[in-house]
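Researcher: Next sequence.
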Amino acid sequence: MSAYTVAVIVGSLRKDSYNRLVAKALAELSPPELKYEFVEIGELPHYNQDLDAEGAPPASWTAFRQKVKAADAVLFVTPEYNRSVPGVLKNAIDVGSRPYGSSVWDKKPGGVISVSPGAIGGFGANHHLRQSLVFLNVFPLQQPEAYLGGAAEFFDEAGKLKNERTRDFLRNYGVALSKWVQTHKAG
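Model: Next structure:
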């Protein structure tokens, strides 16, 4: 069975982010045919079309675009800020979608997981992000939906997943994502 690279975009920059911990747990629990590569977004300058038009995009934009383009699939793991995605994630999406006609997102299978200590699990961010993915021609996994609320109870002091229900959910999500990626990459 072929291995597929999944570019993981975490929408939280916080060092001890629940989103990053969930993404790491998913990577550990997923089938071996998925190889997760975390693509960092915190150092991306705000998108400014003038820099692309001048032929001098920042090196961090170029590196980000190359990493995402080389991946077979993309996974977004995001908190919810004001019923939407964090600005840093929106900026990364914009950087990857430009210049016009050169989007690194085009035709990639993907996944969306929203994570929150709150009860509704980032439902607003999850769906707002999916709206952008439609335009970007990303094919996000539809089922199972992944809204992980109560995230403060998932991990022990060392950042290891302690919640068995969440472990089972992430394992099943990883299996579904693997099948989704394989189906789309097979044509």
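Model: The two ends are 16 Å apart (CA to CA). The beta strands are 4-10, 34-38, 73-78, 109-115, 139-140, 147-148.
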